[in-house]
């Protein structure tokens, strides 16, 4: 025992040392990566830059050997090769560098250039009459950032950043930053890093030592519970480890350590509820630790149920457990509510839309939390079984939970009183299973409980998400009602002072040219790129008037605009601009400025009115600076605005009626259902109504998430991770044949369906892509047919073509680009996209090769501009006059439509796969049970097989492998029965021989002294001394009588042993019998302690039980050495329908090497006696359906336990 404890101790310290080693390694590794000085970072950056420059130089030198080729082959995603013969561009590997000034920029000889918002390091090489420039990409630098425009850094240069705008690149003459040199030693640019902790994306390999640390920590905790000597020490470890985990979690959350963990997106989702669940990641870690803690604790906790203190305080034990379950239920309920209401995660996994990694982690987290809940209840009920009857357990649990429901009523708990029925229902389910069902059937109870918990989680998640959606919809409606544009308002703050101080504006006002004034303000003072507003300037002369229809009221110009501002305007900051809230579906701003004119001081009113916010998609999305509420919405809302009962603006999938009457009378905000949509109707001042609608299909699949929950929990429980039976930890790692069959069936079905699902998605995606390609090719042919009648497509020669392209673009909702036969852009429907440097003015090199060099009639490929991926279609355009061009259509709609089609297929396929997997779980159980049922019958019969008992044969008619096994079993039964008869006969003969030998031995022992005494008597008679003969006869007679009595007692003992089965059973008072037997030995020991429960009755033979008690008391008395004060404890108690008689002494104990033989007949350690006392005691108690066990420690004493059934 001591060796095992020492081995366990060494194992514990080894695991703990490994855990600390992993923690130290992870911390030092992370520190070494994060603690870099600015000089070290610059040095590393320059070294990587020089390495990339060397690679480019090597590629440029290879061009010398490829000079005979017409076209060089250039490799490298982060570099571009361009070639010039003289000033003519003859080669380019990427269209992004296309610019009218490209030759001018590169031929200037600068090593560092900016082309179309891209910074490049330039390497130059001459091959013959061609000058090649290799441009190494450094960083993007767009004029602004938006949803679709983000700056990126060259990842090969080592700046692994999530947001590259924090690394600023400057020209060498600008202030600030550190100089960066090329490999030739010339300064290139300055770089200034504003990267803070958390901006750098760390290597997630750093997580490995921290994960190992956590698992090793729990393993050390498991070992510590195993090696604990007593229940009290175990409790110390349990509570100590719990507080340690809570302290560790608190430090992690407060100090955001380890940093690599808190750089994960799931740890940065915002505040949830405080404490230990401030983010989705923190919630996952906390729930995983709690569930793992429960699993290890309740699997390893060793409770002595006969401990007097536990028996005395067992109701406190029950109350503590149930209250713990109540608080854990509160935690689960609180986590679900706060997780959904305070984050953007969606637990509607079945719908897949808006489901990201955080949502999946949150979903799995709640399943783990629910399984920890099951572990807690299941384990507590198993403990209750050893302390309470089923009635006591049921009433105790019900009473405590009713009290907890009252607490929920009077105090602010997350649970409602009615929701306390959920843990009560699970308690009742487990009480019925544990108390009334066999262990094999209890697994079914566990699975039922698992389904119940999954239903509860999904139901609660849906109700919480619907509640969150209502709040989101209300916020969405509020933003729509405001009709304001925060980003444009920020621009108005900038332009306000410019308008007041501008001499040009002052001059235009004096001239009175309103069109020039409007154009100057919108184009020169205010950069309107990405803003879709019309600008109109108005100069109010005191003589001007405005006539309003249909009221035909006349107002002076100043009076009209001033009244408009006073009644509907809201000042923007301290500017002269006002937001006009007219609830007409557009954002409107009105500025009021005073200027001096020859006629006097006049007011100039500048009016900005929003156009359609989305002038198509694609290029318009790139140019847009707006972050509209529509883009922030988590749900596919439709909305409408009504003014005076007439529709003024609408958007979305729902078709709104022109008049408001269809929605009924609207007096206050409410939610109504109509036409498979949920409508939130909100009245607005000035006779307006805002309606925000959401389709019922958004939550239609929510209960299908139950299948996902069951699937996830099934995977966890398939390996026994979270449920416990009383067979120990090792049983969870044992794999039964039934489980192997289930796993093989599930794996096979899952693998086949996974392959089929992937193939289906891939094939359908290709089909959809071909369909969209055909559609855009047809669109391109239509545009080609429309344009080929023109005489010119070059905007430099015929500017009117730009208007035609723009008109076609607006009608067809596509952008149109025209390239000449040299691959240079000559006309476009969206010139600003190239003017602002978002794209290059060169034809895509692959399209150039296919259309111009190989003369293909069309070419389709996927391309990307900033953050948008689209399908680009190229087609030759030949005018009637013979001029050739290349038509390019960037089809952005394809991405959205294709994604919707593919997503629909994925949703259907994944949900069908989930249904099939759940069915596979169910069917695998049925199939496995049908296969295993005959084997279970064989196993049960083999388990019940007894030597000398009645062994039944198995009836099985199938001629299969199991039938052969059954046949062998039946033949074995026949052989066993024959062998039992032979064995019984042999044992009877052996028993009689042994009995005869023992009787002969016991009789022979007294015969020897009897013979010697008679021989001595004969010699005395021969001497003739009658007085001596008389005395000798008297002495010999006494000896002979004593020996004869001893022989008679031996015969009686063996006779009694043979008659044990003849018991005279009756109900008698065992308490009285034990008390009487104990009194007989009061004088034989120093201390006789009695703890006897009164009125304990038992059914049996009173005399035989008396013999057992006397025998045990006599053995206890005789085991105490003469030099030791004897102490004997006699205790009689009833526990859970069982009678327990305990007799404990402080004698010399039973040596370990003979403990297995004390119940054998004729075995004794005393010099006298037959050795039948304990054998007879064992047989008497076993005949009554009870048992005798003992515990013994050498030189300390022995405790015998006699256990009888109370209702026997």
From TrEMBL:
InterPro entries, sorted: HAMP_dom (IPR003660), HATPase_C_sf (IPR036890), HATPase_dom (IPR003594), His_kinase_dom (IPR005467), HisK_dim/P_dom (IPR003661), HisK_dim/P_sf (IPR036097), Sig_transdc_His_kin-like_C (IPR004358)
Q: Which UniProt keywords apply?
A: Kinase, Membrane, Phosphoprotein, Transferase, Transmembrane, Transmembrane helix
UniProt GO cellular component terms: membrane
Where would you say this protein principally sits, based on its record? membrane
Limits of the HAMP domain: 929-981
Q: Does the keyword Nucleotidyltransferase apply?
A: no
Q: Where in the cell is it found?
A: Membrane
The record's listing under CDD domains reads:
HAMP, HisKA
Q: Which PROSITE patterns match?
A: HAMP (PS50885), HIS_KIN (PS50109)
User: Reaction catalysed?
Assistant: ATP + protein L-histidine = ADP + protein N-phospho-L-histidine
Source domain of life is Bacteria
Cited Gene3D superfamilies: 1.10.287.130, 6.10.340.10, Histidine kinase-like ATPase, C-terminal domain
The transmembrane residues are 201-221, 233-252, 272-295, 315-340, 360-381, 393-415, 421-437, 444-461, 700-723, 744-763, 902-923
The identity of this protein, by name, is histidine kinase
Give the source species: Butyricimonas faecalis
